[in-house]
Amino acid sequence: MHHELLSRLPNDVASALELVLKHNRWRLLEAVNLIASENVMSPLAWMAYMNDMMHRYAEGKPFKRYYQGTRFVDELEVMANKLLGELLGGALVDVRPISGTVANAAAFRALAGCGAKALIAPVQAGAHVSHTKFGTLGALCIDHIELPYDEENMNVDVDRALKVIEEVRPAFVVLGGSVYLFPHPVKELAEAAHSVGAKLVYDAAHVLGLIVGKRWRNPLDHGADVVTASTHKTFPGPQGGLVATRDEGLYKALGRAIFPLFVSNHHLHRIPALIVTALEMKYFGEAYADQVVRNARKLAEALAAEGFNVVAEHLGYTRSHQVLLDVRRHGGGAKVAEMLERANIIVNKNLLPHDPPDAIKNPSGIRIGVQEVTRFGMREQEMEEIARFMREVVIDGKDPAKVAEKVREFRAQFTKVRYTFDVDVIVDGRLPLLV
């Protein structure tokens, strides 16, 4: 059907659309995606995403817009905020940030002005670039000061951090991030922050789905003042962001920072898909999050059994969706990631705690996430198969093109999104727009 359609279009249009179809086939039917910051929406959420709201504007808050024509958008946005708030244990939520980074910007700006001090989890403990002087924090001219790091436990050093908080007296402390295997010490640092008049921000971009699925601590229950997140990692929704708090005054301040400071129109078409995903997580989120955590642990164990140097063995490898590999002896993260991509296994290179900052082009590590393969129905047995494929490429030195064929055959067994409502009668259980 697609080929017939493309044949009726001008060549340049057909060429562009053919690239889209090639991408869809590769990433959704042929490749094993282990990028820790990605996921896939369900067919129902995808259909909800494709709506007229992508053409429309709705600046401001629901029922207080600067545009007309938003009566249904307003109801949907209120519904999304309410659903996410319930899933986060009674939080006030604003889904207008269009990314996790924008959510961080709004939170930082609501809590401090230029020249203030912020204490962040060190890069080794998972800080996202937006937490740093090189990203959003720097753009807001807020001073970036790192908390002490405990390399043995791969986490913030609590005892030393408490002293730093008392000495620095920051405007806020940031925990959470993009590369972390174990929960950060929210309760201890929140109490210390509050004792000096500071707030604690928790970036839950990576673990929102695990929090909603009750397999990761809810930071709001442990003293966090603000939670920021993206909605497309372990939470398998459309790309976007949110802020959450249980403080009504802070909620209003966050709203004023979101609009008009960082967001004008907030990509309205994603909101129906976000609602569908929130409802999926309401009904299936605990089973999904449980399997994600099980798969991550099993993949770590299987990779170690296949001969890989899996980080944090002495700590049980991981409690999140992530697994970290030290691949220095195999040529470094950049080389290994490229080899695996040629074998249809998608990962990303990543700095490890011992890496200097300038090692970013070819760091020691590989970061892996299992949330998307779990969403496609893979379980512990499949984690063992993935580990074997990776060993064949990286350790055994087999031709990635030959392994790619085996990966393609393996992946063909897992093309239906699980942990969602049964809509097979509508789209045959598969994602739309595929050939």
What is the count of distinct domains?
Answer: 2
Mean pLDDT: 94
Cα radius of gyration in angstroms: 22 Å
Gap between N and C termini: 8 Å
User: From the coordinates shown, what is the CATH architecture of the largest domain?
Assistant: 3-Layer(aba) Sandwich
Spatially, the strands of the biggest sheet line up as: 4-12-11-10-9-5-6
Largest sheet: 7 strands, mixed
Binned strand content: 5-15%
CATH topology of the largest domain: Aspartate Aminotransferase, domain 2
Which structural class matches the secondary elements?
A: alpha/beta
Number of helices: 16
Morphology: globular
> How many beta-strand segments?
17
CATH class of the largest domain: Alpha Beta
